[in-house]
């Protein structure tokens, strides 16, 4: 399977439609992402990653999506600049690092495992534009999911920009 990451939006807004952000939540990006992923985990929202001959990585919304989203803005910026980037999926059980190596209009994605799982192949090549669109779509789906469940976090930047497709 080729590398792919997607987010299935929640089908209902009921679990958090009356919520507010507690005063102990910082408004820094990482804290907001962790809180947001905890809220989305209480819905039927689903996070998917596949690739490197693994049909579906065993990821969840509460923790693994948080790890991914914390690093997404930098990853997306580097891909757009045709710079090398890294995404560390450090969650216990996943423990994989993806290294993105810019090659003109292509990106080599190297998967390094820190578990018994062995990626085969360990390198995949993807069109830069397709990778950028996929990562942008994930950001947009994340923000729309927050808005759909009525989370006030959707009003914070960068999420409020992402809702309109500006990821």
From TrEMBL:
Residue ranges of the region described as Disordered: 1-23
Feature: compositional bias, Low complexity: 11-23
Name of the featured protein: Uncharacterized protein
